[in-house]
Amino acid sequence: MGDAGIGWIAAIIIGGLAGWIASNIMKTETGIFMNIILGIIGAAVASFLFGILGISFGGWLGYLIAGLLGACILIALVRAIRR
Question: Which residue range forms the structural domain that includes residue 21?
Answer without folding.
Answer: 2-82
